[in-house]
Every structure is written in structure tokens, then in C-alpha cells.
Amino acid sequence: MSGGATMSASTADRGTPLVEVRNISKRFGGVHAVSDMSCDLYKGEVVGLLGHNGAGKSTLIKMLSGVYPQDEGEFLVNGQVVHLNTPRDARAAGIETIHQTLALADNIDAPGNLFLGRELRTPFGTLDSHRMEHEARQIISRLNPNFKEILKPVRSMSGGQRQTVAIARALYFNARILIMDEPCAALGPAETRMVMDTILALKQEGIGIFLISHDMHDVFEVADRVTVMKNGKLVGTENVTDVSQDDVLGMIILGKKPGKAA
Fold first, then answer.
1. Cα separation of 257 and 228, whole Å?
2. Biggest CA pair distance of the chain
3. pLDDT digits over 66-110, tens only?
4. Which residue would you say has higher pLDDT here, 229 or 186?
5. Residue-wise burial string across 103-129, b where 16 or more C-beta atoms lie within 10 A, e elsewhere
6. Does domain 1-6+13-94+176-262 have CATH number 3.40.190.10?
7. What is the pLDDT of residue 83?
8. Alpha-carbon distances of 224 from 6, 9, 186, rounded to whole Å
9. pTM for this model (two decimals)
10. Where in the chain is the domain with CATH 3.40.50.300?
11. Residue 84 phi/psi, 5° resolution?
12. What phi and psi, each to the nearest 5 degrees, are found at residue 132?
């Protein structure tokens, strides 16, 4: 079943967006990496953020993640202007980024990664390993009920299991907005299916997801809308129910909306 069909109602009927990107621009010297970019994301929605390498996707995501400051424009979360000057600011706003590299410590287990740098402690100040394991099992089983062996080092886990650990870490600390950068890169079909099912489950929980992917089939399976960038600018945002994959490829390659002259 396509995820896009679940949220086909007009965005005007859905209240305040989780995230609004308003007229954001970013320059590096004389290069306009992002220019007057606007898009939004609603509760329980996946928006595919698409474009060739160099289109401006990564720069936009780094601004949303608090890595780069914007030069112009503003970000709103739940209708309120937020200043995303650091990754900590982004996390405080409920925004977490699942990078393609996942940023996991290979030599420790899932609970250790989930609480890395934010460890739970007993009243005596010692590490509360039992509670961390319990909390990790709770949230991981919510995402993937078949993932039981959470106490082995993540280096010995499958790609899909590693994605689950990274997503669980974000959700445990109350992220409501996920940025997922190529979550299925280098995964086999079964692992990709696991990640796709996880994304669909997150939608049902009301999580909003910006999904960056080069796999159009994956995007069309789980996304409600696609936002296409080219040369740092917005080409357009379309409901996946209103366009074909060829239409979106045309937006990416030609930089024009379906049915419009170049």
C-alpha cells in the first residue's frame, strides 16, 4: 500500500505545520547554495526532499539541523519562529537528523548508543544499566518487534537494525521531526523493507519526516508530498498522488513543474 494515499487531503485543512521553511537563503562566498527556499512539513507526513547532488538539499538540511546559520529567512516550528544556531537548538525544537553515516559507536550495544552522552544514572550516581536496557527495549520493540538482540555491539548488527537504533535514539529524546538522509543506502531488499515499514509506523505516530533519497520507488511508497530543488532553488512541491515518477524526474532534471514550459 502506498503511504502517500493516507495524507492526500489539502494541507490547508491540516492546521499548523510542524516545520515551516520561509524564504531561506545561504551563501558561501559568491555561491548561492540555497536561494529563497520555502517548504513545510505537517504532523504524520513524509515529504521527500529531492534533487541532484548540488541542488541545495544538504545545505538546507544542515541549516534545519543547526549546523549552518541561514543568511536570510526564518524557520518556524509549530507556528513559532525558532533560532537554530546549534545542533542543540535543533534538538530542543524537536528536530533530529538521522545521517547516512548514522553516527553510532560500533563497539558498544544498542542501549549504550541510545544513551551515549545522556546516560541514565541511579540515585547513587552510578550508571543505571538495567533502566537503560529496559528503556531501549521498549522503544526498539515499538519500532521493530522482531529486533531482540540489542546487547551485541552495533558493528555486528544488520543495516536495518542499525537504522532502528539511530531512529530509536532520536525518538526517545522526544523528536517530533525527523530528517532522514538516504536511510536505505547500501541496504538489501529485506533491510529496506524494514526501514520503509518503520517510516510508515512513525507516520502513524504523528512524526513528521523529511526524507532524502535517490530511490524514487521508496519515496513514492512512503511520501505524501515531494519537494524538488535545483541549483539551490525550489522547483516545486507536489502531492505524490498528483504526479508520476516521470513527472518528478522531469522536475529534478529540467527544473520545471509538470505541464509547465521550461
1. 9
2. 69
3. 999 999 999 999 999 999 999 999 999 999 999 877 788 999 999
4. 229
5. ebeeebbbbbbbbeeeeeeeeeeeebe
6. no
7. 96
8. 8, 10, 24
9. 0.87
10. 1-6+13-94+176-262
11. -100, 70
12. -65, -40
